[in-house]
Amino acid sequence: MNIGDFAFLIPLLPALAFVITLFFGKRLYSGGALIPIGAIGASFIISLLITINILQNPDQVIHQSVHWFAIFNLGILIDPLAAVMLTMVSFVSLLIHIYAIGYMEHDPAKPRYFAETSLFTAAMLGVVLSDNILQMFIFWELVGLCSYLLIGFWYQKPSAAAAAKKAFLTTRVGDVMFLAGIIILFASLFQAFHGEVPEGVYLLQFSEMFNHIDALAAMNATILGMEVSHLTIIALLFFGGAIGKSGQFPLHVWLPDAMEGPTTVSALIHAATMVTAGVYLVARTFPMFLSAPDALIIVAYLGGFTALFAATMGLVMNDIKRVLAYSTVSQLGYMVLGLGMGAVVGLEAIGVSMFHLINHAFFKALLFLCAGSVIHAIGTQDMRQMGGLLKAMPITAGTMLVASLALAGFGIPGTSIGTSGFFSKDAIIETAFVFGEYSHDWIPYIFAILAALLTSIYIFRLFFMTFTGKSRNNAKAHEAPSIMTVPLLILAVFSLVFGALTLKPFIAFMERTFDNNVISLNIEHLATLGNYDLVLEHGPEPLFILWLPVIVAVAGLLISYLLYYKQVIDVSKVVSRENPVYKLLYNRYYQHKIFTELLATRIVYELISLSADYFDRKFIDTIVDGIGKITMSAGNFMRKIQTGVVQNYVAAVVAGVGLLIILFRLIVEVI
Amino acid sequence: MIGLEHYLILSAIIFSIGLYGLMTLNNGIRLMMCIELMLNAAIINLVAFSAYSHDITGQVFALFVIALAAAEAAIGLAIMLAIYRIRDDIELNEINILRW
Amino acid sequence: MLDDPGKALASISKLLPSNPGSLLITLLFLAVVVVSLIGTSFPVMDKPLADIADPSNIEKIGLMLFTEHVIAFEVLALVLLASLIGAIYLARKEVDK
């Protein structure tokens, strides 16, 4: 019995748990939390076994598919990329579910929460193991729906409802681009087959897509006077979907507002799983990006810019969860930047980016759960009202320190000592250096280093403001119950050791994604299609470059230490409404004003919608009402014939008979 | 020579006189008389055809029509009586409950 | 007469029917029937039976009535009976309790 035969259970079990919890949750113990935990635990075990299996023979991937309708199929593809994602998603989801039993203790709507997170897990697992892009899109949308439901979990709060709506609509913009990409891909593939698809060939399967990359690259379209290949358009549209889901600029606006949901939701969805779906999509369709000229450069620039941009805003936030939200956007920018480095290093980019994705999942989930523990104890989310919690909540403080060190990337280069964040972020920064070296384009590298500095500053600012100093509030803080601290400790262990254990083999493992019994591609050939010069072997970097990220991280720690712990400089003088730079950052570059008030309200609503409404009311309604009025007045006129006097009826009958006779005679004569 | 058409045209004229009266008159009794006129025009038609076809069936039919006309007149007058009892006049143009 | 055209018009207008539509319809009907009649050729003899005072007419009518059309005769009797009863019922005096 092959473990791969159970692969279909991985998304199915949480979905069943969703149904059961939704209907019977109220009557079960602790709001029906145990069924999703059992289901996700089973999914985790199956994923782990499958991953171990694939680790041992990486060229035997699991591929099952059934015919659905027309030329589409439903299928499962578990290759190295999918296997590690599955394991990570189910593992983190399991830990957060256990944590949530404690966190959501006093919430009356617990069954709904567990049902929705269970559905979300099922959908995310579905995204990961889809074998064709249409099925991935279906699960992608389902993930977006669950995100909407969970952000607006406390829907009685108007801010939560508004945030949920904003999240859904913003990711929708990305989803439309994704769908457009799928449609253009389908049309192009159909054209490549010259309109006749053989039996048993499913157009949108990944294996089919990759087989036809050459054909797709040859097709060209002219947009605005420029010759663009279809492949570039498709790749960029897919990246548009990733922008929406993974919160890159300019569609990142929903992530900070998404903190309106419960903290466990933020940990699960907006740190570890849903936002990584975009990165996963780009990694999954990486051969297409590799063959499309300039697509990877755009990816790299956008990722680097987002990383820096979000880090600047994270510096000045006062809400603990908002800082973490901007941190997530920034780290996602790092992951996208890592993917963009494929322009120079080829498939190693996937390895580097996914490695950071998995490590980030661990320490960001840990950060959110610690924040949740603090919020649970204190009752407020504003950091200005926290302080001095180190003694009261030692476990939380300790794990948060570990997570902060991981996020900032502390470690000793050249050895295996360091937090996992060090290894993964360092890998990306080094890759950016190689990129700069060989293409003489240093912008991604500069963005990465600056963002690393700011990351260190803001995360330690958060730590010092929350846990050290004099207590600025009156609430009695107590340590969280053990059901909440055990997941924290497990995640802390992973944040510490996972990086050191697995960097080199991980990257090699990832490179087998496109070299196995289902998909087997010639990477050099694809890269020449995309006009990229791949550097497959690069020498060690200069020592200074190796140590620079650590120097930057320590510098950030020192700066925060001086400002917020020792309070060498009086920060309140800088942090004030008068300072224009602070105002710019605090108002988040006025994005809310620009997007919502100017674009949505003024331009779209008032200009377009209201004028369309005016046109509709005055012009079209006149026509429609006019038809009704004409009918009624014709009817009014015709009913006067019924006078009720029989003699009139007699007259009508006789007139009719006479006319009939005349007509009959005429017709007979004519014929 | 008097041919069949003369009788038929006579019948048509009497019929249309009766028809005009039917369409125009207000009084109930006058309406009954116009109906009788129309029936009689039809009888003339029947008898004319019987004479010129040398077939006696037309005249037998005419007898039946006369009897029917009588029966109908009886009923009609009874109805006029009932109407008179209710409305105190027999202006048939006033009975228009089924109008719009 | 001509020095009072209003009176002349009034006296003439008394001759016109009050309902010109009905007159028109009647004339139309008459015209249609007459035109149809004149054009049609009926399959009849040229002359009616010459002898008017022949009593065998009545004999023939009676014979026909009681042999060929006896059913219609009986039914007609029933119809007359029904109309008799109906007329009596409709025209009786109001019965007050």
From TrEMBL, chain B:
Its main location: membrane. GO terms for molecular function: oxidoreductase activity, acting on NAD(P)H. Its EC number is 1.6.5.11. Keywords: Membrane, Oxidoreductase, Transmembrane, Transmembrane helix, Transport. It is a multi-pass membrane protein. The chain crosses the membrane at residues 6-25, 37-54, 60-84. It is found in: Membrane. NCBIfam families: F420_dehyd_FpoK (NF040614), PRK05715.1-2 (NF004320), PRK05715.1-3 (NF004321), PRK05715.1-5 (NF004323). PANTHER family: NADH-UBIQUINONE OXIDOREDUCTASE CHAIN 4L (PTHR11434:SF16), NADH-UBIQUINONE OXIDOREDUCTASE SUBUNIT ND4L (PTHR11434). This is NADH-quinone oxidoreductase subunit NuoK. It comes from Methanosalsum natronophilum. The gene is nuoK.
